[in-house]
Amino acid sequence: MTTSINEQKKIRAPFRADHVGSFLRPAALKEARAKFQQGTITRDELTRLEDEEIRRLVEAQKANGILGVTDGEFRRSWWHLDFLAGLDGIEFREVENGTRKFTGVEVRPVGIKVTGKIGYSGSHPFIDHFKKLKEIAGGETTVKFTIPSPNLVFGRAALETDLYEKKEEVYRDVIPAYHALIRDLYDAGCRYLQIDDTAWTSFFTEDERDKLRKEGSDPDQLIHQFAEAINGSIADRPDDLLVTMHICRGNFRSTFFTSGSYEDAGKVIFGGLDVDGLFLEFDDERSGGFEPLRYVNRPDLTVVLGLVTSKHPELEDPEAIKARIREAAEYLPLEQLALSPQCGFASTEEGNNLTEDEQWAKIRHVVKIAEDIWGTGN
């Protein structure tokens, strides 16, 4: 039996019930990573354990109703720094309380620095990570791969080179590096790519915009450079490579680093990005209302509403979530909406404050609500 065009569109990611990507690291994986850092096991031994745990994770995602599986970011310590430090010209550095201060918790003193010309030489560990995930998942399974945004180089890296006089100048090398790396991911079989980007929060409040001004940047110009970085990185991509972007306000051990509505950045985010979908944080009042969705100007853009929190174990009232989806549908047709947790469950290896059982209960909650709203089949 052939599949109709409408049915094909219905099952194309982002799915009606989707997720952001990271999952809580199992105790065995945490122990193995600690042993590797201590030098008591080899890289090969750690990799074998990672493979085993990712295999279990993929099966758990399928069993709990997820159609697009990830590796849970199990091979990473950080959702962003591990990838960025794999680019040419970028290295890890020590920094007080991380690159952002989170509410009420201390972040490990690790950041990144630009020490030379930024580039992609054709080799990056994340390419192999994707290949292994695709092999583990099997040919019939949709695989989603997550990488941090090129804007994180601007937003999180310290300049320790004379090659770039201003931070904005990093974009001339970051964009082609990302473009080439994404092409290699595609050639490796990637068809569902998610770009994670917390740097957009720089435009959500006047306090954040003031920080940019104090650092010598013009937020009214920089926001367009942010969009150009995304669009340039994915320019001329093949038609069958679906690209989404996730935006949130921080996710570390169930805390956050900022608040603010999408309103002041809405015209650019919703009307100026060439992505296929947007995963957006909407799980509490810190994110504002749905009014900025009015800036969506394309019928082929899917907005994935992050209405279920990954920060706490309590399950939201399903009727309240459905009511909020209907509220969002006042600004965007229901067929352009989907549902997910607002962020991953473990943006870093520490993870949020809930158990693995509670994590999967959240996933099933998303799947059930999506089935009630949009019907089965996602």
Automatic annotation (TrEMBL):
Gene Ontology BP annotations: methionine biosynthetic process; methylation
InterPro entries, A to Z: Met_Synth_C/arc (IPR002629), UROD/MetE-like_sf (IPR038071)
GO molecular function: 5-methyltetrahydropteroyltriglutamate-homocysteine S-methyltransferase activity; zinc ion binding
Superkingdom of origin organism: Bacteria
One family name in Pfam for this protein: Meth_synt_2
Keyword RNA-binding: no
CDD domains listed in its UniProt record: CIMS_C_terminal_like
Domain annotation Cobalamin-independent methionine synthase MetE C-terminal/archaeal: ranges: 19-371
Primary enzyme class: transferase
Keywords of the record: Methyltransferase, Transferase
EC number of this enzyme: 2.1.1.14
Signal peptide per UniProt: none
Transferase recorded as keyword: yes
Name of this chain's protein: 5-methyltetrahydropteroyltriglutamate--homocysteine methyltransferase
Source organism (scientific name): Bhargavaea cecembensis DSE10
